[in-house]
Design a protein that fits this description.
The chain is α/β, with parallel strands linked by helices. The chain has a domain at about 1-130 and about 175-235 and about 410-485: Alpha/Beta hydrolase fold, catalytic domain (Rossmann fold). The chain has helices spanning about 1-10, 95-105, 110-115, 135-140, 150-170, 180-195, 205-220, 240-260, 275-285, 300-310, 315-330, 350-360, 365-380, 390-395, 430-440, 465-475; strands spanning about 40, 45-55, 65-75, 85-90, 115-120, 135, 200-205, 220-230, 290, 295-300, 345-350, 420-425, 445-455, 485. The longest helix is centred in the middle third of the chain and has 25 residues, at about 240-260. Belongs to the peptidase S33 family. This is Alpha/beta hydrolase. One of its GO terms (molecular function) is hydrolase activity.
Length: about 500
């Protein structure tokens, strides 16, 4: 079951101005406040890495501190430099440092990289910023996130409490301050350390929550902000959150089936894909499907849906079809061998629950309530059996304290410039309705551009989406609110 949380941490569907020329919106930078000691990054000599020492608890600035890990790739055309572009790839749990060092060059256009310093940071509790660490043995012992009765529900709650205390012990005080609101204040401290009067920001998926809340608190410090695959943090109803997520996952499953019906490159082409899928999950329920990567263990149905769900992010439909076909081809008479002893490090990074459970006040109180919620999401997504990501997140908060550091609320943005929101119509994780609701809450501050295709990624889906964001970030060209970009078929070879 721990692969659910690891998958959640890995799923994954992407600055102000220093110029002497006439770039729109240019500003003169201030003298940096706290210093970042930049040095060449190990294994990435063309980039710079550093740390920024910050307080763990903003209410106690003289208390314990941690080092925020930062990476920077300077603008390749410094004479035409616009400023800094802070990036956060989402998660929660994805590394902005890793994105800057290993993914930005491929995922951001050459024009953006030539005109902006690309700056990524690891949010507190993630990567190089005092990561949340937990006992691997305890992570491996996670009970089912689908409790069948009150006894199993209480076992899940007891496990979550034990894991929470274990992670707190191995992580330190940062664990209790891993919420997104604390990350927002860290980003403002980073702006000051960079010496920038205003920043540009590109937040993807869970990174949009960082952007939204930064715009609330520090809107006048923004030059541009582009948010893709948006999260609506105003949802207070647990059922609404689960059902909307499940509906989005099921929609992506149907997009996958339609692609298989028409694409000869689909490993399931010409077959009844829904029947193959449903029977595969039934066999997994009976313990008949082996994990191809670990032949000594079986795969549960929820692990299969989770794996396919991550593939829908791309969307990597050909890979998903090959995976399903491979599992379906297993012979039922071949029984799994006994699992050997597990080896590895005694501690493992696991930031997802520390962030999610401090950002969302979702706490089912007993099995009866949990079962009603599970039934509602399964009704909304009968083939995907709900939303693997959100269900696991909710289950991981069972037994946690009621109080959260960053409770849900409607956005109150008063000083920010025009923000650009982009979202896929068939996003498997974050439904388009979330983006539409966030747009309404900004009261005209944001515009929403919809990509009419599938997948969790948005910016690099087509020339239309890329040009819209590049034009906005570089020249302050704001697309028409309610505009669309046509779907671009995934690379299928057909």
């Amino acid at each position: 079951m721990r692969s659910l949380f690891k998958g959640l941490a890995g799923a994954l569907a992407a600055g102000a101005l220093v110029l002497g020329g006439g770039v729109a919106g240019a500003d003169t930078p201030r003298t940096p406040e706290p210093a970042i000691d930049w040095k060449p990054c190990p294994d990435h000599a063309t980039a710079e890495c550093g740390t920024l020492r910050l307080p763990v608890d903003r209410a106690r600035p003289g208390g314990e501190t941690f080092d925020l890990a930062v990476a920077r790739r300077k603008a390749t055309d410094p004479d035409r430099r616009v400023g800094v572009l802070l990036v956060n790839p989402g998660g929660p749990g994805d590394s902005g440092v890793n994105y800057t060092l290993t993914r930005a060059e491929a995922q951001l256009s050459a024009e953006l990289r030539s005109r902006f310093d690309i700056v990524g940071f690891d949010p507190r509790g993630v990567g190089g910023s005092r990561p949340v660490m937990c006992s691997k043995k305890l992570l491996d012992a996670q009970p089912s996130v689908y409790p069948r009765d009150q006894e199993e529900f209480e076992r899940l709650a007891a496990y979550n409490r034990e894991l929470r205390e274990d992670c707190r012990r191995h992580t330190g005080p940062v664990f209790d301050h891993a919420d997104t609101l604390s990350v927002v204040h860290d980003m403002e401290a980073l702006r000051k350390a960079l010496g920038e009067r205003r920043i540009n920001f590109f937040g993807h998926s869970y990174g949009t929550l960082i952007g939204e809340q930064y715009a609330e608190l520090y809107g006048d410090r923004i030059r541009t902000m582009s948010l893709t695959a948006n999260v609506d943090h105003s949802i207070t109803g647990t059922r609404e959150f689960l059902v909307s997520s499940a509906t989005s996952a099921e929609d992506s499953w149907h997009q996958f089936v339609k692609w298989c019906d028409r694409a000869r490159s689909c490993a399931l082409h010409g077959r009844d894909v829904p029947a193959v899928w449903d029977e595969l999950l039934k066999r997994a329920d009976r313990g008949e499907i082996r994990d191809p990567e670990q032949p000594g263990r079986t795969l549960g149905a929820n692990e299969i849906t989770q794996r396919a769900f991550r593939m829908f992010y791309g969307p990597d439909w050909a890979e998903a079809a090959t995976y399903v076909a491979r599992l379906d081809a297993q012979r039922p008479e071949l029984r799994p061998a006994a699992a050997g002893p597990e080896t590895g490090q005694p501690l493992e990074a696991a930031p997802f629950p520390a962030v999610f459970c401090q950002d969302w006040r979702f706490r089912p109180r007993d099995h009866r309530e949990f079962a009603r919620l599970a039934a509602a999401e399964r009704q909304a997504a009968p083939h995907m059996r709900g939303s693997p990501r959100v269900h696991a997140g909710l289950a991981g908060c069972v037994g946690w304290p009621e109080r959260v550091n960053n409770p849900q609320h409607r956005l109150r943005i008063t000083e920010a410039p025009k923000l650009l929101m982009m979202h896929s119509r068939h996003d498997p994780a974050n439904p388009l309705s979330w983006a539409a609701e966030v747009r309404r809450q900004t009261r005209g501050t944001a515009v929403l551009l919809t990509y009419e295709g599938a997948g969790h990624r948005v910016y690099d889906r087509s020339d239309c989406t890329r040009d819209a964001m590049d034009g906005y970030l570089l020249a302050l060209k704001v697309p028409r609110d309610g505009g669309t970009c046509a779907a671009a078929d995934p690379a299928t070879g057909d």
